[in-house]
Amino acid sequence: MDQRKRKIFKKDWADRFNPRWILDVVKETDGKVARGANIHDIADFISGMEQNQHLDIVGEEMLLPEVYRLNLNEMDPAYFWHDGQLLNLGRFTKEELLVKGNPQQMIHDAFRKFSRAEYEYKIGYTVEPYYGDSNIVVPTVHQKIGWDIAAALTLDDVKVKILNPRPGSSSVEIPSRRWNYSYTVQFHNLPIGPEAYSDWQLLSHETHSPASIRAPITNRKKIKPTVFQHTQIAAYLLRGVADPMAAVERTRKPWQVLEDLVLLPFPPPSDEMVSFFNNMQRVYKLERTKESGKIYNNRRQLFLAEQQALLSVWMHHVGPDKIFDYTPDGKFDRAFVRNAFDRILN
């Protein structure tokens, strides 16, 4: 049995994200086995799991067919574009967006169509800007994790450096959960002015870290879409809830006032989604191996790709109202976001 006690996340504020030792969970909970069940039955069971239950997914056929080729703890952004199917929020002109460019309403509409149609595996949603070549891609697993990270950093009062290099942009440093370095996320086209309902579709970012400098050249290939993974979503949320004078106090430059973000293109997960994620932490892939005539059970946590597959099925089952919490007119409301932080972590 997999009995690793190694902490995945090393930083104190991120310790809450370390999964419990598998052997402890197995000893303290009642085990259920999914053998021969389809992914829809598994997702339904997870959504209603009791706290005193864990689930073992047995057999190679249960490696979740949508992601059978992946053997990753984290998913490469290129996967979303080249292999994953996405919900398209639609393409509108700038004039149309200024009238009906509420990002959360567009997300709600896309997931409503998704839940009413025959099921197809979806890894998230994509936005087609009214001009430019780079689509916005948001994997829903990373959207949930991004909210987790921003909530933990805020509630633990971890200092995050935020600056305004130029109008309409921001630079946010997100500390790594594992190592002693930060990811620097440089945003462009932030929705901060009267045309925010159209500008949010042009939102983009560049992300750098010391680790990327040492990465092999093959890992630094240019990807056409702008993929918002958990680091960038957390950075956007922290930029939105930041004290407007924080950068001024740091730099003593009056023009560094952080203008209010008008819109929230990444709505927070609902209580139902949070519960589903929490339950997935007690779902294991059970692989049986034979050595010296003895059979051993080896359990492991689900990879993110496998979690995304289950989440996709669950989202199709429950419909848009139970996937996210939405703000009126898609606005970025600081009090709402901070309340969501408390709700998600508690």
Description:
This protein is α/β, with parallel strands linked by helices. The protein has one domain. 36% of the residues lie in helices and 18% in strands. The protein contains 13 helices and 12 strands. It has helices at 22-28, 39-47, 77-82, 94-100, 103-116, 140-155, 196-199, 210-214, 230-241, 246-251, 271-280, 304-318, 334-345, and strands at residues 30-34, 53-58, 86-88, 124-127, 136-139, 162-163, 170-175, 182-188, 204-208, 226-227, 283-291, 294-301. The strands form 3 sheets. A 4-stranded mixed sheet has the order 1-2-11-12. A hairpin with a 6-residue loop joins strand 7 (170-175) and strand 8. Helix 5 packs across helix 12 (304-318) and helix 6 (140-155) packs across helix 13 (334-345). The chain is globular. Mean pLDDT is 86; it is low at 213-221.
